[in-house]
Amino acid sequence: MATSSAVPVIDLAPWFGGGPDGRAQVAREVDVALREIGFLLIVNHGVEPALRDAVRESSRQFFELPVEVKQRYRSQVGEDTWMPRGWTPMGAEANANSDEGVTAPPDLKESFNIACFAPTGNAEIDREWFTDNVWPDEVPAYRSAVTAYVDKMHALVDELLAIAAVALDLPERHFLDEAGHPTWSFYTHWYPALRHVGQPAPGQLRIGSHTDFGTFTILDRQLGTGGLQVLGKDGEWADAPWVDGAFTINIGDMMARWTGDRWLSNRHRVLAPDASAPDEDLMSLVYFHEADPTAVIRSVPPPVGSVAHEPVTAGAYLRAKLAAIAVY
User: Fold this and answer.
1) What is the DSSP letter of 202?
2) Does residue 208 sit in helix, strand or coil?
């Protein structure tokens, strides 16, 4: 399988320190990438490798616990809260089911996830979106590492939202002003080795083909044979390029809608463990960002956008998306 050369690597250093010309250049590069493929890699993003390593190390300590211990932290999704928190066992999600009319095998992964928790003061909104997280008592280092990591993600996604606005020749706070108290979630996805999960069922992947739901996704992934693939314009799957230390960035359906479909929320998947690497064990750190639940997502009009979608609140939009993938 070829590597997708259409996914560019973009250096953020000029955005942070290159003055107006540098910021404009980065914004142009991001606009091209999101119009053409919906994905990009970023370097010089300011998140140190040691912090990412700490999250992985503490996550592995949790995933290696006995199932009966992990079961105490089992996450639930439903009408009372749509942001799952805690452990998601193997077989509890089928991301490909987000496609209407698709019934897919469950994903070959375990996850531990946290989500937005700081209350807004609106009891109804807080009950649905901003509830307390679950933390594994057996691995106290997980909470400290993830909390520090998520703080970095918050700062980085704010920069991405500002870049997005500049790229579309909008006021720099165009998206940020609708994300003052956004929903977000952070997942540690563990993709166990083939020796652990056994032979996949027909069509079963580590994560099935899907698009993301929100504004930006920030992915820290590991290189492997059973890794990330992105759908090309030719309709063929290609391995996403990998650069040591880079984050993989893509937009979700909400941002595509917000830009009037100028930008592409592209399909991607994570391959099943391959027989050529039976001991390959990967762990991805994924930060998903949306907007304030009450924010009204209105498509950017022409000539920037090309499709005028019906306005929708971010909360209603995300609620429908999350309901589609749960297989509890």
Assistant:
1) T
2) strand
